[in-house]
Amino acid sequence: MIANVVLSRFPLAAGLVKAMLAVWLLAFHPMAHAERIKDLASLQGVRDNPLIGYGLVVGLDGSGDQVRQAPFTQQSLTNMLSQLGVTIPQGSNMQLKNVAAVMVTARLPAFARPGQAVDVVVSSMGNAKSLRGGTLLMTPLKGANGQVYAIAQGNLLVGGAGAEAGGSSIQVNQLNGGTIPSGAIVEQGVPTTFIYDGALTLELNSTDFGTAQNVVTAINQRFGPNTAVALDGRVVRVQAPLDAQAQSAFLSQIENINVQVPPARARVVINARTGSVVMNRTVTIDEAAIAYGNLSVVISSQTGVSQPDTPFAGGQTVVADQTSIEMRSEEGSLQRITTSANLADVVRALNALGATPQDLLSILQNLKSAGALRADLEII
After folding, report:
1. In a shared domain, residues 217 and 285
2. Where are the beta strands (DSSP E) in 247-317?
């Protein structure tokens, strides 16, 4: 009551206090941001379909499969030539170095129609040294049901490079795989149905009950009450128009609705193999004290040779290995880190410790165990 009287008598002070309160809320409470439903969710039933095929790449510069170690290459080439009217004598040993057996993969997008072009990825399955400069011959691409949905053919685009001479070799990037942009032609599409019983289903990219409820609220404000309902923290069911021609326009409007998204859950991801640490902006640290040090063991071996004092003395040369073991311990000190309210402060506090990335892995785990790390810790 007294504060209200004071603020009413001093309007300038009231504005200053409100501004300071707003700054404090911005600093310590991350605000939600708006995103389109298109970026938050996908439409159930609208998805890509994987395709796979087996084929041959020809035109290689002597870097193809070795027939003795990859007999399926010769068998595939013989079958292909027989279909083209070329008969190979029985027992012939073809020594071809410019042919490689490959696996071809692609993704058939939703609503694809015959004649549409899709990208393909070509990967060697034999012992070919390089696919650079090769041409993929006509390869059927099949779906999980065994039916052919696309035909792939074209020149490979390989991003790597290499050279070999005199027993020495150099290589940059991968040479046993490549891509063919728009290298496959769709022969038949997959029927796609996204409206069932007059309703469509939106699936959020991540489970969040708050985001699901915000999506429902935004859709109902746009199209009226009871248009959308959240089934759980990931699935939202939306009533669609009965007219088939209006369904596409209705879905387009839904995808472009902006929804307030709450801040993401605080998470720290640690890769124990590479020593990398990644954290999002909502990670915070409470005040804590940390002591760490390094302990290393060094083992060295030195070969000693003992020879007779004088020539022809009848002695023997003795070779002995001398091994020494040394233990080194770096001094550790107790370091204090203050409470960090945002990601910049967290990074500054951790860098102040002067720890290596490998030490940081253990420090974060210990902070989580002590309850000072306000985030989920995920180790991959």
Report:
1. no
2. 258-261, 267-271, 276-279, 284-285, 288-292, 295-306
- Count the alpha carbons within 13 Å of 296 in the hemisphere toward its beta carbon: 6
User: Is 263 in contact with 253 (CB distance < 8 Å)?
Assistant: no
Q: How many domains does the chain have?
A: 3
Q: Are residues 174 and 230 in the same domain?
A: no
pLDDT in tens, 166-209: 555 565 667 888 999 999 999 999 888 888 888 999 999 988 89
Residue 310, pLDDT above cutoff 80: no
At 208 the three-state DSSP class reads coil
Query: What is this structure's pTM?
Result: 0.67
Residue range of the domain that includes 115: 49-162+169-186
What confidence category does residue 119 fall into, taking pLDDT thresholds of 50, 70 and 90? very high
Give how far Cα 296 sits from Cα of 326, 327, 328, 334, 335, Å: 9, 6, 5, 20, 21
Neighbours of 112 (CB within 10 A): 20
The per-residue pLDDT for range 28-51, each reduced to its tens digit, is 445 567 889 999 999 998 889 999
